[in-house]
Specification:
alpha+beta
Protein backbone atom coordinates (compact mmCIF):
# COMPACT_ATOMS: atom_id res chain seq x y z
CA UNK A 1 0.00 0.00 0.00
CA UNK A 2 1.16 3.52 -0.71
CA UNK A 3 1.13 6.25 1.93
CA UNK A 4 -2.44 6.32 3.27
CA UNK A 5 -4.83 9.25 3.32
CA UNK A 6 -7.53 9.88 5.90
CA UNK A 7 -11.17 10.93 6.12
CA UNK A 8 -12.71 12.21 9.34
CA UNK A 9 -16.41 11.37 9.43
CA UNK A 10 -19.23 10.94 11.94
CA UNK A 11 -20.39 7.46 12.86
CA UNK A 12 -23.91 8.32 11.63
CA UNK A 13 -22.65 9.16 8.14
CA UNK A 14 -20.29 6.21 7.95
CA UNK A 15 -22.70 3.42 8.97
CA UNK A 16 -24.87 3.62 5.82
CA UNK A 17 -21.75 3.77 3.65
CA UNK A 18 -20.51 0.49 5.11
CA UNK A 19 -23.89 -1.08 4.34
CA UNK A 20 -24.02 0.38 0.81
CA UNK A 21 -20.37 -0.31 -0.01
CA UNK A 22 -19.69 3.33 -0.95
CA UNK A 23 -19.35 6.69 0.77
CA UNK A 24 -20.56 9.70 -1.18
CA UNK A 25 -19.36 12.32 1.26
CA UNK A 26 -20.43 14.56 4.09
CA UNK A 27 -22.41 17.76 3.51
CA UNK A 28 -19.25 19.82 2.87
CA UNK A 29 -18.03 17.23 0.37
CA UNK A 30 -21.32 17.29 -1.51
CA UNK A 31 -21.28 21.10 -1.55
CA UNK A 32 -17.67 21.27 -2.79
CA UNK A 33 -18.08 18.49 -5.35
CA UNK A 34 -15.36 16.23 -3.96
CA UNK A 35 -14.57 14.21 -0.84
CA UNK A 36 -12.03 15.94 1.40
CA UNK A 37 -9.14 13.87 2.73
CA UNK A 38 -6.03 14.66 4.76
CA UNK A 39 -2.54 13.24 4.90
CA UNK A 40 -1.11 11.95 8.19
CA UNK A 41 0.58 15.32 8.68
CA UNK A 42 -2.68 17.21 8.13
CA UNK A 43 -5.12 15.17 10.23
CA UNK A 44 -4.47 16.85 13.59
CA UNK A 45 -5.12 20.33 12.20
CA UNK A 46 -8.15 19.14 10.21
CA UNK A 47 -9.71 17.61 13.31
CA UNK A 48 -9.00 20.62 15.54
CA UNK A 49 -10.16 23.15 12.93
CA UNK A 50 -13.32 21.44 11.69
CA UNK A 51 -14.34 18.89 14.33
CA UNK A 52 -13.33 20.27 17.76
CA UNK A 53 -15.34 18.78 20.61
CA UNK A 54 -17.22 16.25 18.47
CA UNK A 55 -17.64 12.92 20.23
CA UNK A 56 -19.02 10.93 17.27
CA UNK A 57 -15.99 10.80 14.99
CA UNK A 58 -14.22 8.06 13.09
CA UNK A 59 -10.90 8.17 11.30
CA UNK A 60 -11.07 6.27 8.03
CA UNK A 61 -7.78 5.16 6.49
CA UNK A 62 -7.74 4.84 2.71
CA UNK A 63 -5.25 3.43 0.20
CA UNK A 64 -4.95 6.21 -2.41
CA UNK A 65 -3.70 3.79 -5.07
CA UNK A 66 -7.16 2.22 -5.12
CA UNK A 67 -8.82 5.55 -5.97
CA UNK A 68 -7.38 5.89 -9.45
CA UNK A 69 -7.41 9.13 -11.39
CA UNK A 70 -10.42 10.49 -9.49
CA UNK A 71 -7.99 11.43 -6.69
CA UNK A 72 -6.50 14.88 -7.21
CA UNK A 73 -3.93 16.69 -5.09
CA UNK A 74 -4.97 20.34 -4.85
CA UNK A 75 -3.78 23.41 -3.01
CA UNK A 76 -5.92 24.19 0.01
CA UNK A 77 -5.35 25.35 3.61
CA UNK A 78 -2.07 27.22 3.98
CA UNK A 79 -1.03 26.49 0.40
CA UNK A 80 -0.61 22.76 1.17
CA UNK A 81 -1.61 20.02 -1.23
CA UNK A 82 -4.63 18.07 0.01
CA UNK A 83 -6.10 14.90 -1.47
CA UNK A 84 -9.58 15.35 -2.97
CA UNK A 85 -11.65 12.51 -4.43
CA UNK A 86 -13.90 13.42 -7.34
CA UNK A 87 -16.21 10.44 -7.06
CA UNK A 88 -17.49 8.03 -4.47
CA UNK A 89 -15.28 6.24 -1.99
CA UNK A 90 -15.51 2.48 -2.51
CA UNK A 91 -15.15 0.41 0.65
CA UNK A 92 -12.52 -1.71 -1.12
CA UNK A 93 -10.13 1.27 -0.77
CA UNK A 94 -10.67 1.51 3.01
CA UNK A 95 -7.97 -0.18 5.07
CA UNK A 96 -9.17 0.69 8.59
CA UNK A 97 -11.75 2.62 10.59
CA UNK A 98 -11.05 3.71 14.18
CA UNK A 99 -12.84 5.92 16.67
CA UNK A 100 -11.44 9.35 17.54
CA UNK A 101 -12.07 9.73 21.26
CA UNK A 102 -11.54 12.96 23.14
CA UNK A 103 -8.70 12.85 25.63
CA UNK A 104 -8.50 14.40 29.11
CA UNK A 105 -7.10 17.59 27.59
CA UNK A 106 -10.26 18.07 25.50
CA UNK A 107 -8.54 17.25 22.20
CA UNK A 108 -9.11 14.23 20.01
CA UNK A 109 -6.71 11.34 20.47
CA UNK A 110 -5.16 10.78 17.03
CA UNK A 111 -3.55 7.37 16.51
CA UNK A 112 0.07 7.06 15.51
CA UNK A 113 0.44 6.49 11.79
CA UNK A 114 2.62 3.95 10.07
CA UNK A 115 3.42 5.58 6.75
Amino acid sequence: MSTPIFKVVSRDLWAPAENDGVFNGAAIDLTDGFIHFSTAGQVVETVSKHFAGRTDLLLVTVDPEKLGDQLKWEISRGGELFPHLYGELEMSAVTSVVELPIGPDGRHVIPSFKT
